[in-house]
Amino acid sequence: MHDPRVLLDSATEAVRKLARRGYELDLGQLDKLLTQRTSAIQRIDNARGEVKQVANQVQAKARAGEDVGELRERARALKTEIQQTEEQHRQFEADLQELLLGIPNLPDDRLPDGNSDEFAVEVRTWGDTPIFDFEVADHVDIGERLGIFDFPRATKLAGPRFAILKGPGAQLERAITAFLLQLHTQRHGYIEYSVPALVNRPTMTGTGQLPKFEEDLFKTGVDDRELFLIPTAEVPLTNLHAGETLPAEGLPLAYTAHTPCFRSEAGSYGRDTRGLIRLHQFSKVELVRIVDAQRSAEELEIMLSHAETCLQELGLAYRVVTLPAGDIGFSAQYTYDIEVWLPSQQRYREISSVSDCGSFQARRAGIRTKTKDGKRGFAATLNGSGLPIGRTLVAILEQCQQADGSVRMPGVLVPHLGFSRIKADGTTYAVRGGVWG
RNA sequence: GGAGGAUUCGCCUAGUGGCCUAUGGCGCACGAUUGGAAAUCGUGUUGGGUGUUAAAACCCUCGCGGGUUCAAAUCCCGCAUCCUCCGCCA
């Protein structure tokens, strides 16, 4: 959410920036609603002030034994006026909120133009894309050959866009998760959290999923209690400090959590229907940083490096791109995507998105900061995937596939797995006595 | 699901209709004292909004939302959260 006065003050700038992501800002409407709201507040405040004065006069006169009938009349009239103005105020406030909550964050001017990933600009590549002297298989073929996926039964249980992992596949998912959490907590300084996967409407509003993107979410509840399934741990982690004032000297806060993520994938029918790439439910290790608003750009680089380290340690070739202004998320002002190499598709595919949301979410969620000398402000929030487990598993299967049909496990996972290879017949090559093949 | 209790400023706490513009303590900040510190003394210390060049001033804020009243922390109604007990339960 934006401060409406700042938007109005920087009118043409704000309009220009929002236009880059295809949002047309109606400054006239914003100005009108703000003026109406302010005027209503002033009338209410004045009337309340007079009520107080009248009440004091009533007391004084009553003590002196004078008649207070006229004053009572006046106070009653004021009260009616207040109630009417309050009703107007509620409407203006609601309209203003609706408008403000629907305005996306302002994209950073350094971002390239464009409204799709075609316009993403490559920042760097890492690792050699593997060269195979045999015909590569995609992750679905590999996984089914190894017997570690069961898509038909997933569909039976829940329908399309769900997956079942089995045996070494399920173990691999668990090992990737454990490795990532250990990396972030032990080497990158993140505090691990275990958080609710169902959250309420204010929480979803705080990070920007609501009110505009309700159709992207799974929604549930008990009786008349409404709950949403989180699409990412960014939601609970960022909202941990919603409505709180944080001491500035305690920043940055660095949080991580492994959670299931649920997405309706409305509007993506027919896209990535195969395999683990795009599911209604997947699990992910998420990174969140809550930082001083002035430092968000530097913090973004730090967080990006943490996400990159995951892939480097796993030995997976990837590249980093800067998303164009029209393709970043609603709450973001700057976003890097990390794309991992998928041999079967002969291209890089998104595996991590690392975003600087500036104070956009902090203002929505009410995450404030206070310095020792009493200066107040809003924090900045950042989030990044570090990493989604399913897509990481896809990349491992594809990049580490062998001519004999087996898949070699990345070395960093072996201690978590207890095996170093899934053999072509789906059995594993167990690690014994610290020697593995 | 049932019964009872609680919710006041960062923490603890006083407060049964107007003098609450909320008491006192702890903590914190600044100052005095000191060679320096402790102790002591003094001053300050919820947040939000309107407003202003800045201020002043005003409004809201005693869990949340309504209501009664000229006037509500205080009375009434609803709700939320927490605690205790019973029931159910991974």
Instruction: Write down the overall mean pLDDT.
Output: 93
Percent helix, as a range, is: 25-40%
Strand order of the largest sheet: 1-9-10-11-14-8-7-2
Terminal CA distance reads 54 Å
The total strand number stands at 17
Q: What percent strand?
A: 15-25%
**Count of DSSP H/I helices:** 13
Shape: elongated
Radius of gyration: 27 Å
Helix-and-strand structural type:
alpha+beta
The main pleated sheet reads as: 8 strands, mixed
Low-confidence stretches: none
Sketch the topology as an H/E string, one letter per element: HHHHEHHHEEHEEHEEEHEEEHEEEHEHEE
How is this structure best described in words?
By secondary structure, this protein is of the alpha+beta class. Helices cover 40% and strands 21% of the residues. It contains 13 helices and 17 strands. The strands form four sheets. An eight-stranded mixed beta sheet has the order 1-9-10-11-14-8-7-2. Strands 3-5-4 form a three-stranded antiparallel beta sheet. A three-stranded mixed beta sheet has the order 6-12-13, with no helix packed on it. A hairpin with a 2-residue loop joins strand 4 and strand 5. The two termini are 54 Å apart. The mean pLDDT is 93. The structure holds one RNA strand of 90 nucleotides.
Q: What topology does this entry show?
A:
Layout (H helix, E strand, L loop, with lengths): L3 H6 L1 H9 L7 H37 L5 H33 L19 E6 L12 H8 L4 H8 L9 H20 L3 E3 L4 E2 L1 H7 L11 E4 L2 E5 L4 H6 L5 E3 L5 E10 L18 E11 L4 H19 L3 E5 L11 E9 L4 E10 L3 H6 L2 E3 L5 E3 L1 E9 H11 L7 E2 L5 H4 L1 E4 L5 E3 L7
Parallel strand pairs: 2-7, 6-12
Antiparallel strand pairs: 1-9, 3-5, 4-5, 7-8, 8-14, 9-10, 10-11, 11-14, 12-13, 15-16, 16-17
The chain binds one RNA strand of 90 nucleotides through helix 3 and helix 4.
